[in-house]
Design goal:
The complex is a heterodimer of chains A (439) and B (151). In chain A, the strands form five sheets. Chain A has a five-stranded antiparallel sheet with strand order 2-1-5-4-3. In chain A, helix 12 crosses helix 14, helix 15 crosses helix 17 and helix 20 crosses helix 21. Chain A has 21 helices and 16 strands. Chain A has three domains: 116 residues, 2-Layer Sandwich (Beta-Lactamase); 163 residues, Rossmann fold, CATH 3.40.50.300; 48 residues, Arc Repressor Mutant, subunit A (Orthogonal Bundle), CATH 1.10.10. Chain A is globular, with a radius of gyration of 25 Å. In chain A, strand 3 and strand 4 form a beta hairpin. In chain A, 42% of the residues lie in helices and 18% in strands. Chain A is α/β, with parallel strands linked by helices and 439 residues long. With 151 residues, chain B is an all-alpha fold. Chain B has a single domain, classed as Serine Threonine Protein Phosphatase 5, Tetratricopeptide repeat (Alpha Horseshoe), CATH 1.25.40. In chain B, helix 2 runs antiparallel to helix 3 and helix 8 runs antiparallel to helix 9. The longest helix of chain B is centred in the middle third of the chain and has 15 residues. The chains are: A alpha/beta (439), B mainly alpha (151). Chains A and B meet through helix 5, helix 6, strand 5 and helix 10 of A and helix 1, helix 6 and helix 8 of B.
Chain lengths: 439, 151
């Protein structure tokens, strides 16, 4: 038998190591069988897509291994990172990377070969334990109740409305809901309703036909069509214009819609998960959010508690983020001194988990030893620890909230007043009543 | 090498570094539309509005559809997010000449008529600017007669 005539694809499909290639635009061109098995992504669903959209690794943007090969001229071996599995969970992998060169010796793409570390004893068990619910870290009672609810509704197609302050992890909860649902192998499409101008949002959701409006140069399906059979995550749903809310309500009630510029009614089987950080009661009172849509979305409500109400989760989150950045930077910083951790536990975290992660990333970058010390934490957190915790010690939830807002805006009262929708003098009176003064 | 590095840095939204590599890539491949399309966005994000405009003019003269047919998802185009943030930052106030140029260029990746509106505003701020006049003329060819433009 002439082994030299075996097609390369056949050979690559027979090995146990995952292999994929990208072109110079970082679109996936080849994806072998082992890559499918390790990542949970089907070849036909990933070929042609940008690798960062598929794997969503934190190393994709700042530490892309192929980019490092391009920059250094040396291949990468045994680089450990985490990628997003088809189930939406992140999994640890170890990879090798090299660049593919064309006839002119110009880079024309890259190749990654990789193995999973999730099931061969290499994975750190405590990491998996901390990330125990589909990448969402939390052991407080409030978070365990949320995890329990997600498991209870795994057989349901009912709409879910996730409410919580900015940075509490609403998108991660939506990911977990999809990953545990019967639709987990079907498309999972996301859209941030606050990002698109109103005229683009309708087109994004429902699609359009060529010539429907100026700039509509070809037919394009909307996200409801793309999500057919799967799940659509509507982030920041309360920011949606009222007219769009009417159209969304119709899709939720009837499952039908039309592309813009077309009269053909289309049907899509989509499970909707929505989220908002807006005070929905106030939005309803002010007529900014339709009551009928609210009831249609709020079939299964999930309220995510702010981080200040679950400080017991902070040590677990700190450990989680330290491991994440240690892996990415290949720098061993696995501990935080007690005083620094106390400082983090006392801080009110107006930006919630996202702000905590940023603080850890900042401290991590500034740390050259194996332990993060108090002095390496961001100034605003250390100042809070020094000035306000001992001096003010607010006793009410309202005082905590106001203090958190003041910290968020670096005690710029005009900005705080604007965010609260009150005047500066009203803010000053409220601060006085609550015993908050800038010392 | 520079094109591939520029592409990755553009995907990472690291516009200053992406600019350096995409410029080098363009030197090696003059007139490359894929590079120009990204470079225009990079220039607008690092404050090099006039250079963005020069690149923009050269690309739309060559092939305006290459910009118009950009797909935000399959082309990983950041323009919808950028224009929304820029417009939001204006808080309804009058846009500066630079803002109008930037919004005009970036809107063409999403909507030709909106792009025309912003370039028209820029022209009212700098009447007689021949570059903007030629941009308006080219964009006008892509606005259907059913959507008459304001003059």
């Amino acid at each position: 038998m002439d082994f030299t005539t075996f097609p390369t694809e056949l050979i690559l499909d027979s090995i146990s190591e995952g292999v994929f290639t990208v072109d110079k635009n970082f679109r996936i061109q080849f994806f072998n069988r082992a890559a499918e098995a390790i990542t949970g992504h089907r070849r036909e669903n990933v070929v042609g897509r940008f690798c960062k959209q598929v794997f969503q690794a934190y190393s994709c943007e700042d530490e892309c291994p192929i980019t490092r090969v391009l920059q250094t001229g040396s291949n990468i071996t045994d680089f450990t990172t985490r990628i997003c599995h088809g189930s939406r969970e992140t999994i640890p992998i170890r990879l090798n990377a090299s660049v593919l060169y064309g006839n002119q010796n110009d880079p024309i793409g890259g190749v990654i070969s990789f193995r999973s570390l999730a099931d061969n004893g290499h994975a750190d068990p405590s990491f998996a334990e901390a990330s125990r619910f589909h990448g969402v870290v939390g052991r407080s009672k409030a978070m365990r109740q949320v995890f329990d609810l997600i498991e209870e509704i795994s057989d349901s197609d009912a709409t879910v409305l996730i409410q919580g302050e900015s940075g509490t992890g609403k998108e991660m909860i939506a990911n977990a809901i999809h990953a545990t649902s019967r639709r987990r192998d079907k498309p999972y499409i996301k859209i941030n309703c606050s990002v698109f101008p109103p005229d683009l949002l309708a087109s994004e959701l429902f699609g359009h036909v060529k010539g429907a409006f100026t700039g509509a140069m070809k037919d394009r399906p909307g996200r409801f069509e793309l999500a057919d059979g799967g799940t659509l995550f509507l982030d920041e749903v309360a920011e949606m214009p009222l007219q769009m809310q009417v159209q969304l309500l119709r899709v939720l009630q009837e499952g039908t819609f039309e592309r813009i510029g077309e009269s053909i009614t289309r049907r899509s089987d989509v499970r909707v998960i929505a989220s908002t950080n807006v005070n929905i009661d106030r939005a309803l009172q002010e007529g900014k959010f339709r009551e009928d849509l609210y009831y249609r979305l709020n079939v299964i409500p999930i309220d995510l508690p702010p981080l200040r109400e679950r400080p017991e989760d902070i040590p677990h989150l700190v450990k989680h983020f330290l491991r994440k950045y240690s892996t990415a930077a290949r720098k061993k910083v696995h501990e935080m001194e007690d005083e620094a951790l106390d400082c983090l536990i006392q801080y009110p975290w107006p930006g919630n988990v996202r702000e905590l992660e940023n603080a850890i990333e900042y401290a991590f970058a500034r740390t050259t030893e194996s332990v993060i010390r108090l002095a390496r934490l961001p100034l605003v957190i250390r100042q809070y620890h020094g000035r306000y915790h001992r001096a003010v010690a607010p006793h009410t939830e309202e005082a905590w909230h106001l203090l958190a807002l003041l910290e968020k805006h670096h005690w710029n009262r005009s900005r705080v007043a604007r965010e609260l929708g009150i005047g500066r003098t009203t803010l000053w009176r409220r601060m006085k009543t609550l015993g908050i003064a800038h010392t | 090498m520079h094109e591939m590095l520029g592409n990755q840095l553009f995907m990472a939204r690291n516009y200053p570094s992406a600019t350096l590599h995409l410029e080098r890539a363009l030197q090696a491949h003059p007139g490359n539309k894929a590079i120009l399309r990204k470079l225009i966005i990079c220039y607008t994000q690092i404050g090099e509005t006039e250079r963005a405009l020069d690149a923009f003019v050269s690309l739309i003269k060559d092939d305006i559809d290459y910009i118009i047919e950009t797909n935000p998802i399959s082309d990983d185009c950041p323009c919808p997010e950028i224009v929304f943030k820029l417009e939001d930052d204006l808080h309804g106030e009058e846009a500066s000449y630079d803002d109008n140029l930037v919004l005009g260029m970036l809107w063409l990746y999403c909507n030709a008529e909106r792009a025309w509106d912003y370039f028209h505003k820029a022209l009212t701020q700098r009447p007689g600017n021949s570059k903007i006049k030629s941009v308006l003329t080219i964009i006008k060819t892509r606005i259907p007669a059913t959507n008459p433009i304001k003059t």
